[in-house]
Each structure stands twice: as C-alpha cells, then as structure tokens.
Amino acid sequence: MNMPDNHADDLDRGLAYDMPRLLSRRSLLAILGITSAGAFAAACGGTAPRAGSGEASRTSPASEAGLGDPESCVAVPEETAGPFPGDGSNGPNVLVRDGVVRTDIRRSFGDSSAVADGVDLSLNLTLQDWTAGCAPLAGAAIYVWQCDRNGDYSLYSPGAATENYLRGVGVSDSSGRVTFTSIFPGCYPGRWPHIHFEVFSSLDSASSAGTPLLTSQIALPEDVSASVYSAADYPGSDRNFAQLSLSGDMVFRDGWGTQMAELSGAADTGLTARLAIPVRT
Questions:
Q1: Region (Disordered): which ranges (predicted)?
Q2: CATH number of 5-279
C-alpha cells in the first residue's frame, strides 16, 4: 500500500524503538538462563517449540478440575509493544477512558463512532497461569490492539489519529476465556500480520497504569492471511505480504509456536481465531 510518509517514518522509528527493548529483554533473560527451550521444558516437564519453527506447542483445554496439562504448558514469550501501544507508555492512554472495556472493538467510542471495516474476526483467547500448570487465569485483564485494513493504528496514524477503534480490554471468566469481535488486520511493510496484547493481573491494574504480567503478540497463519488479502479489500496487503516470511519477521523469527493462532472459517463468512496464552504470574 502507499503509506503516508509520516506513517512510514513512525514505522522506521518503531523498528529503532522496538529493537533495543526487545534485545534488552531477551538478553537479560538469556543471562538469567530462562529463555532456552531446555529451560522451559525442564520447568514445565514438556517439549518447547523449536526456535524459528512453525510447529505449535498447544496447551490442552482446562480439565473438569480446572487444571491444564502441565506437560505441554509453555509460557508465551515477552515481545515488544511496538510504537503504537496507546497504553500511556508512548503518548495517548486509551486504558483510562470510559468505554474501553468491551467485546466489539470494531467501532470507536467516545467522540467518534467510526467503524473499522474488514473481514470479521472473532478472537477467542484463553488466559492460563503458567506457574500453576496452565490452570485457568480468571479475573485477569487483557488489552488487545491492532492495525486496520489499511495498516494504520488508531490514535497514531494519519487519518486514524482521532479514532480509537481496534483497541479494547476484556476480563477473563472463570475458565480464563476472553472474546473480542474485531477484523482481520491488514499487512503493512516489514511486519507479519499480528495482533498485540498486554495481560494485567486485574482490571484495576490495567486502568491505573499497572505493570503488565505479559506483553506479546499473536501471529496469524500464512494460508488464511494470503486468502484474506487476495479476496477482500485490503489495499496493498497482498503485495506487502508476498514479501514477508515468519522466519524473517523481527518479532516471530526466533519462534512462533506459542503465538500462532488457530483459525477457522472463511473470508466471506467471517473467521475465528483461537489461542491459549500461558502467563507467568
């Protein structure tokens, strides 16, 4: 797509902004010796996904006793929030605004009612407590945000700076589940299709600038992404996507097994994405 110059500048700044944070986090964890696949496997008693592999390491659904499967419990890695978080760490803070706690994030709230158009996407997430063998993590808050079909982020990008669509907060139920109604995100230059999220211990923590338990990103499957961008109105996304790979993405290139959503449905009828998110509490 033909991205406005100042938006492209933001993306360039974002890479410079993101990489030191990403590297510093992982360097620190590497020093502590807790990021290797072997360390995860030893801690969880299971097999961690291979770095750079598309093989997913799935957690089992919660059992009747409320516990997950400790042998396949692998925590989702920490990732950069990027330059457009909208959480007060880099400019605007949507988390303190009335209306941000919602299920349908396609529409802006407050002073605008603009709707982000695109292929409907139901985002079904299950938060799990990694420290308790992937038992359901109830009462936690998750903030999700993503770009629109043009690759623009509300609150930041030219043409979307006065909007706050495609941002919202949900609170997990007793089974750890949270559901959002959104759209399939566009693909802008340099990044694999993804959705950002932050997990907080509670809604109060999210709305009071508390420290997230986890900041990470959800990857979307290659076949579904290609299908959406070829069949629907996503300006420039098919061309941008053709130039990308998971192994070359700045976030997912070191492994995406625990971050790859499972998708079902079709572009013309709507899609459903599912992902279990084990969190170190």
A1: 50-74
A2: 2.60.130.10
